[in-house]
Amino acid sequence: MSYADYLAGDPLIITAALTGGVHGKEANPNLPETPEEIGRAAAAAEEAGASVVHLHARRPNGERSFATERFQEIDDAVRRHADDVIIQHSTGGTGAPDEDRHLPLRTDPPPEMASLDMGPLNRYDHLTSENTRGLVDSLHEEMIDRDIKPELEVFNDGHLNEVHQLLERRDLADPVYATLIFGPGTLTPPRPQNFLNSIDNLPEGALFNTLGFGRHQLPFATMGTLFGGHVRVGLEDNVYYRKGELATSNAQLVERVVQIANKLGREVATPDQARDILNI
Amino acid sequence: MTCPYLEYRGESDGEQFDHLRAYCTAAERFVQPMRADICNDRYDLDHAEHCEIYRKHTEEGEP
């Protein structure tokens, strides 16, 4: 994808990452944690322009859960409140056993999409989410079995090598869809030249989603929009609306990128258009 | 065994929550949910190995 794709006017897929699994209400009290809160947030994000919601599950006190039953409660709430939004489950899980990482894929019905982390990510000072190739392959195998579209999460440019290697050892349905992630730590340093370099290193024909952490969310969403990619925003990745001002909702962050897309003349995809683009 | 610095509180310093949340008495703040899994030694996690706050306070000889 490229600036030419922007000029061609392909619709923009907006993913709202509603809750995450790292921080919670201690970081922003507006972050949804319970199934009911997540369901309502999904509906508001869809109304604002999101076609995909990226979901993690939590216990009642906000702590992480990987249980299929908890994801089921969340999906049921999303379907109760939202219209037609695409449900994407996270399979991330720092410190969780590999078998637990499969549990979010086993709801009924399965999610239409699920994340697939392409390699290691450091957390805090003494912890790494390993995401071995063996785990990547086993998660992908189950996604094939359940007809789930993988969203390849690329934490840094080394993980683009992993994407190419994954394509050499496994069959992925077209189009390959990769989220390029920019921010601190293990992530790709958030600089425009790195963004352009990452796009250049994508496999031929791959579509990309753009994710900037924290204050980089808005500028990288704008760059993603301008270079024919898609964008992810939400309280999982950024709890602020602007410096010193907490975001009031996920929908507020979605509305802002919709405004940018509108000003740049790029149509925002409906859930059905997103399904067509992603071949779901 | 959970971290000795872990407590569950519903409020602190003006912050209030509907459910009791993980609070680190060493750092004197509510901790992130992911870090709470370390505090509780859940999954493959161990506070003595994975938590820099516990390690720092232990190295400094605090209780």
- What best-fitting shape of chain B do the alpha-carbon axes yield? globular
Average pLDDT reading of chain B = 91
Strand order within the widest sheet of chain B? 1-2-3
Residue fraction in strands of chain A:
15-25%
- Domains of chain A (count): 1
Major β-sheet of chain B, in short?
Answer: 3 strands, antiparallel
Quick structural overview:
By secondary structure, chain A is α/β, with parallel strands linked by helices. Chain A has 10 helices and 14 strands. Chain B has 63 residues and is an alpha+beta fold.
Name its key features.
heterodimer; A: 280 residues; alpha/beta; TIM Barrel; 8-stranded parallel beta barrel; two-stranded antiparallel ribbon; 10 helices; 14 strands; B: 63 residues; alpha+beta; 3 helices; 30% helix
Question: What's the topology here?
Answer:
The complex is a heterodimer of chains A (280) and B (63).
Chain A: H1 3-8, E1 14-17, H2 35-48, E2 52-55, E3 57-58, E4 64-65, H3 68-81, E5 86-89, H4 98-101, E6 113-117, E7 121-123, E8 127-129, H5 133-145, E9 149-154, H6 158-169, E10 177-182, H7 192-200, E11 207-212, H8 217-226, E12 230-233, E13 240-242, E14 245-246, H9 250-263, H10 271-278
Parallel strand pairs in A: 1-2, 1-12, 2-5, 5-6, 6-9, 9-10, 10-11, 11-12
Antiparallel strand pairs in A: 3-4, 7-8, 13-14
Helix pairs in contact in A: 2-3, 2-9, 8-9
Chain B: E1 6-12, E2 15-24, E3 29-30, H1 33-39, H2 47-50, H3 52-59
Antiparallel strand pairs in B: 1-2, 2-3
